[in-house]
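Dear colleague,

Following up on Tuesday's group meeting, I ran the structure prediction for the two-component complex that the binding team flagged. I've pasted the input sequences exactly as they went in, so you can double-check that nothing got truncated or mislabelled along the way. The structure tokens for the whole assembly follow below. Feel free to forward this to whoever is handling the docking comparison.

Inputs:
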Amino acid sequence: MNILDRYRAMEYGPAPEARNEADAWLAARDFGKALFIDGGWKAASGGKTFETSEPSSGKLLAKVSDAGAADIDAAVSAATKALPKWAASSGYQRAKVLYAIGRAMQRHQRLFAVLESIDNGKPIRESRDIDVPLAIRHFIHHAGWAQALDRDFPGHKGVGVVGQIIPWNFPLLMLAWKVAPALAAGCTVVLKPAEFTPLTAILFAEICERAGVPKGVVNIVQGGPEAGGAIVNHPGIQKIAFTGSSEVGKIIRKATAGSGKKLSLELGGKSAFIVFEDADLDSAVEGLVDGIWFNQGQVCCAGSRLLVQEGIADALIAKVKTRMSRLRVGSPLDKNTDIGPLVDLTQLDRVKGLVAEGAKQGAVCWQPDAALPSSGYYHLPTLATGVSPANILAQEEVFGPVLATMTFRNTEEAIELANNTRYGLAASVWSENVNLALHVAPQLKAGVVWVNGTNMFDAACGFGGYRESGFGREGGREGMFEYLAAKLPLGPVIKPMATSAQPVEQADGSAIDRTAKLFIGGKQVRPDGNYSLAVATAKGKLAGEVGFGNRKDIRDAVAAARACKGWPEATAYNRSQVLYYLAENLSGRAGEFSARLTELTGANAKAAREEVDQSIERLFLYAGLADKFEGRVHQPPARAVTLALHEPVGVVGIVAPDTSPLLGLISLVAPALAMGNTVVAVPSERYPLLATDLYQVIEYSDVPAGAINIVTGRSAELAGVLAKHDDVDGLWVFADAETCAKAEADSIGNLKRVWSGNGRTLDWASDEAAGDAFLRRAIEVKNVWVPYGD
Amino acid sequence: MSSTIREADLGTKVTSLPARAAANTATALDHRIARNPGMKLDLGFMESVRSVNRSALERRVASLTKRRSIKADNQAAWLLRAVACMDLTTLNSNDTEERVRRLCAKAINPFRRDIVEGLGISGETIRPAAVCVYHPFVATAVDAVRGTGIHVAAVSTAFPHGLAPLSTRLQEIEASVRDGADEIDVVIPRGLVFGAKWRELYNEIVSMRAACGDAHLKVILGTGDLATLRNVMLASMVAMMAGADFIKTSTGKESVNATLPVGLAMVRAIRAYFEETGFFIGFKPAGGISTAKASLDWLVLMKEELGRPWLEPELFRFGASSLLTDIERQLEHHLTGHYSANHRHAMA
């Protein structure tokens, strides 16, 4: 083709990115010694390797050391050995190391980008302009956190040795999201990259060698499931951070149950992309390109469900198709490629299978008329219309370039459709009406909401999910907490309660008989089973009987808590006043509660009175904090504000301890209520009458029906029911170790946020058993990105 | 939506434009574009396009120029395209007839002979589509380019501010047409946009179009003055409804020249108008486009947002004065591998 032909055709032609430097790097390395442990390069102890190949051709790139359990042991030992010195180093010292890493990455950023595109298949435009710059930004941003630790996180210290497992879709960026905050917090790291994409992590380890990272502080172990399993189960690791599928996330949650390991999971999604009729439609179309056709759709927060208002649906779909036909599918190393190959044949087969199944279930799947390269794992961008909410393409995370489209009639339906998913990672809202956009954003069950934008990320802003998209945040202040621990005042070990009925001596019959029922939906109701449990006084006499709550009572209580809209939607000032009123009314009956405490626990009058007074004080504290534990406004490097909103977790189950039966219960229920959660509480099994006595206090205090529900009964049994209830969003358990571990393991049905005392109770009377540490567990941080400018 | 933009749509509703010889050798694509007849002022249609999200447009153009890269022979071909779509312009207060004749000579013969031969384009005529001058120099320019097919564009209607009485402005158009200009670049009074006086703006442009007769009407919005991209979108719509053949960004005299976000808003207006009416409207960014690299960005914008038909001089023009020299330098570099210098290429 001569220049005149090209002048007439006006095609782009190929614009290949040179790969000679990357090939030279590949050729110069011994990938059989690719485990970076204790500052040195080691072969896998079993001598095993795995292969990594190029998705655009299937060609073998390297045979990489495949770590086994012994190698993970070695890495954890190195990290443990390095920990004391690293944790004790000054924030300035750690900041300098993080800064050096960031700058060194900057100096080699094109090599990182080319390697990433070769190994993963993502277009060079994305690795060069998005992945690598964001990874660098993460290190430089977190250098600041290292130095600001004492100022911004008083009373916190690094959790220790952390095990990190990252996916193949953003290999270097996910590494940065994991390693940067860990190092800033003073943790040492054992990180396992994904088998499909080991290369940039190896280059990163080389950078660490040169940037002055002390030996053993960063250990990078290549490997597969065996290495991953060894990390998850290693007793020398204090925290696991995982990004990957919800399926594996649940396995990890179960495996770490009862281990006391801190856990953050960043999992899958089926994020809604909502276009209202007053949106800038052309821009929304570009948003989709960045949303679902970014990284071949292999993005956990991909806007894979397009929800479009009926009146503009045809116009928008026509625009989407026109735009799709301009997407260029081709070599990842061509600068003009919009869509590269999927990472692996298995992934391609999976996507094809889901599209076929979706079509079988009635979706109309459209693809632009474009040729695919002859080799490589390519999939054309695909638009599925006529997708019903029940269609597999609306339900399952495809992790490919497939957009499922549905229409909605009004705002309410848009929100309903958006939230009609087990996931809750991200959402996009397109409207030129700021009133509408900011009306919708808080109602979406998603950890990140982009207004008139999509897939915007920054180190200063938190990222992470609601629901089965996982828990914990990465980035920003909220992300730092995942690598920090605050000291809580531990109490004694909780022993399992004997389940056999305690022999109770009959009391004298002078008082009028009282029936303590359950408190559900604002009413005192009889237990479903119509059995009762005897409650003994300290002296073994019968103090009364309480309802023997069972799984159906929990079910009813959760339904009431879910149905209660008046509490989460109330203003913080309103909640504050109700909590003050609760304190006021409890105070009015302080004598009665003191006497009850003495009767049940045998505490002397002074101690009993003190527990009641402290309970009132704690209600006062959280009443006051209800409108003060606020979110933040982050400042990403863009003309945008990112609102880090504190939202209630939702329905929170609380299993309260026997120790300090009134103060313990109130110390847990009050912060949950203050932040707008609705609560299903299981009070102390041994002293439940303190909770049933509260019914009247609650009834007098203007608490909306369903905001507090109390079910008495066997704690272990009811904790299990709560753990397995998939409409419970959070669960706080202070019970024996086995009950705690079981609650954690059983929580995987919907990946509820579990906070357990791991068999220990707290010293509830301590001032440290109150405050931000409790409030933080009562909220989700939602980052709402609002770009602006007119 | 009457139709979508596809290459295949070319030719529907198209009638030939009589009496307009092309400045360049006609391409294989037959671009006989039906002239926009305009339509009644439709405020409802305007309402449907008023959502223009500035941040989103800025992000789009930021990634657009990174998503496409044009290398080697293709780059040379695209730069030649930029020349073919150029209104070589001189709009200075110290312009003289001699200066205009020099400009015309450069337009007729833009490249050094060795570059033409090196690129293998001697069988083709590739040169600016028009020269663009103030009214007093129209006759000079017409005389200078006679027989070449190069069009003569006159800036008009009290350029650059547009604040003379309407009757004066219309007379100015008529005078330029009489002198032989076949393209008239008019400016709008920006105040009509701020006042949302769409009817008045529409009527003015309708009468300007009438004054043009067969000459093509390019409507300059003065986007640097319009404050918002929404205003740019709405003013573009009014201009097209009133019968503009082209919409143009700037006079080159505003403090902010043609920017890609503004261009994106305008080409999206053109697309919306096409989808509504089926008529192709041309686009002319002008002011501040002086580098070969920048011209490629604009060509990419046209191809990505509107498609191949909008890469012809009938539908796309750069208003530029120094761009041509930079392109010549790049073409020389393409041939020799040596970076070139301005003085190696004939000045306009």
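The longest strand of chain A covers residues 640-648.

Cheers,
M.
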